[in-house]
Amino acid sequence: MIEKLAATKHLAVVSDFDGTLAGFANDIYAVHAEPRSLAALERLAKLPDTTVAALSGRHLEGLKRVFPLREPVLLGGSHGAESSWQDSSLSPEAQAHLDRKEAEIRELMERFPGAEIEIKPFQRVFHLRRLELTDPELAAEAYAAGRALDPAGFPMTAGKSVIEFSATQATKGSWISELRERVGATATVFLGDDVTDEDGFAVLNQPPDLGVKVGEGETLAAHRVPDIAAVSDFLEELAAARAVHLGA
To answer: What stretch or stretches form a coiled coil here (predicted)?
Structure first.
């Protein structure tokens, strides 16, 4: 598995951030990526014919606040709606949809004190992690209420302690496909832990592409690691094997 990836002509290594490179915290900006994972990604990014990217549900500017690596490492935010290599904008219809969802989420926040909203350029997100810590039953009720909101034909994703309403059809899968085409990748590995990462795993259909699921749960990924520490192990092994193959 590692050997085939390391030996490919052009390798793309893409990783989710939260739950994959870093743990979780009540303050979403109080998280820190695992140093070993960062070092392995940085080593990979310096190798010839190797592209490294971080692809997150965070909006691009929010990702930059917690992920320290920069070019040649590429960044994708808002589940693939944003890219560090191009600007993006919303149509009036899409903006109106976000405005409606924001108003509805704020109504839920009044019903369920402790629930929170996150404003992203292309999404509005109903956050329940803090409420779960103080009142799990109320959080479960709030989660059900959030899922009952009408997405009005736009994407809605229910993840771990969050419900996200998007104004774009972009997914992590579409972003990975575009990246693969842009750099001419002959193999892509993508690591992720949440429901939204399944879109990324779904497009890894060109052997020796590899999806790596972090933690438990059903998945389309062909490989699984138990936790963030194991992500570091995987990335270190991949970086070492790629360097040996390239003689770098």
So the answer is: 91-118
